[in-house]
Write a structure and sequence with these properties.
390 residues, 4% strand, 3 strands, 13 helices, mainly alpha, three-stranded antiparallel sheet
Length: 390
């Protein structure tokens, strides 16, 4: 189920990226007026991602434990390097990319993988879940806080939110008490409010979320155009490739707002199919996590599923105007190189965990749990043998 849903999302994503980006690329000299510009690089990164997924299927869990610190430290170095002139690449007022020859990578995407591996390893090695805020902060909170701080410097609130959702899901999976989880949630909301208030464009997004139609010409322009696109699709859509909004009205149509193009071209039916595929992905991922005995693998499966599905929920909510815009792309569908590589690697890890032999055995039927279970027969007592001649 997991593999089938993943490949369906990947293929469907490439189709929708071409539909959403062809007119934009064909009319833009930056892309050499090539309507296939985004699909060419998208197919290249998808092929690399599928190859990485296949490779991760055969990586033993013991290797992942050894690789966790290396991946984490490498991602920290990458997050710091994006601020170095000549190495980091800036676009739209943000420095989030590294130039590697003709290619660019986004270290924050790999930081998600590194953080997942390290946090799962730390929690799995503990005898019991953290019970106080002090136990939670040392060293777990410091490491996650360092990652989030480096990401916020870029700045990138959306990726920071994705990391926080993933870590929170890991704490729930490991069995942290509800009281501590509520304290952590209150602390996160307080810090998030400060970060939002500190940046004017983030405040504009909150105001746009509260009253999008009242600010349709300013901060809420993207959200309003997205809702117009989805509403124009109706039940069955205007047809694949027939979107009007993607040409001159909807910014970032092939990345963050690609679900709006899906709603316009394929209608409610197409949108529900996308939501259903992510629901099936969540079911398959959490089923793997619940059936796994090894604590590290169980946390790894739960965190990977929460990261991918959580990003999908945030993106869908933002595009439909249910949640504020955060800049999180739709996993496996939106255009993106580093994001696609990391997500397909996580899918490979999930499949590898599902192939492990240590799964929770099905409980045996007993008379106490199942009245229809067969009653065990009492063993026969051995016959008493009389001595010869008695």
């Amino acid at each position: 189920m997991l593999l089938i849903v993943t490949m369906c999302l990947v293929v469907f994503g490439q189709l929708m990226v071409y539909s959403a980006s062809s007119a934009y690329a064909m009319t833009n000299p930056m892309f050499n007026f090539d309507s296939l510009y985004f699909i060419k690089s998208g197919v290249l990164y998808t092929a690399a991602g599928v190859g990485l997924m296949i490779a991760m299927i055969f990586v033993p869990a013991g290797w992942l434990k050894k690789l966790a610190p290396i991946v984490f430290i490498g991602s920290l170095i990458g997050l710091a390097a994006v601020r170095i002139p000549g190495i980091g690449v800036a676009a739209n007022g943000a420095s989030r990319w590294l130039a590697l020859g003709p290619f660019t990578i986004q270290p924050s995407e790999f930081a998600k993988l590194g953080t997942l591996l390290v946090v799962a390893l730390i929690l799995a090695n503990r005898r019991k879940p953290p019970e106080t805020m002090k136990e939670l902060l040392m060293p777990l909170g410091l490491l996650v806080g360092l990652v989030c701080a480096l990401i916020m410097v870029q700045p990138d609130l959306g990726t920071t939110l994705a990391v926080v959702i993933m870590v929170f899901a890991l704490l729930v999976a490991v069995g942290v008490r509800e009281k501590l989880l509520l304290q952590l949630l209150a602390l996160g909301l307080a810090v998030g409010s400060v970060l939002i208030y500190a940046a004017p464009y983030r405040r504009d997004r909150i105001f746009a979320f509260v009253d999008p139609w009242g600010q349709s010409a300013d901060g809420a322009y993207q959200v309003v155009q997205s809702m117009i696109a989805i509403g124009s699709g109706g039940i069955f859509g205007v047809g694949l490739g027939g979107s009007v909004q993607k040409v001159n009205f909807l910014p970032e149509a092939h990345t963050d707002m690609i679900f709006a193009v899906i709603g316009e071209e394929l209608g409610l039916i197409g949108a529900l199919i996308v939501v259903g595929m992510f629901a099936a992905f969540a079911w398959a991922g959490y089923t793997i996590a619940m059936r796994t005995v090894d604590p590290f693998q169980r946390l790894l499966a739960a965190g990977a599923t929460a990261l991918i599905v959580g990003q999908a929920i945030v993106n869908l909510g933002a595009v439909m105007g249910i949640l504020p815009l955060t800049g999180i792309p739709l996993p496996l569908i939106s255009y993106g190189s580093s994001s696609r590589l990391v997500i397909l690697a996580l899918v490979g890890i999930l499949i590898a965990i599902s192939r492990e032999p240590q799964l929770v055995p099905r409980p045996k039927r007993t008379a106490a749990s199942d009245p229809d279970a067969p009653t065990p027969k009492k063993p026969r007592s051995p016959r008493k043998r009389h001595p010869v001649g008695a």
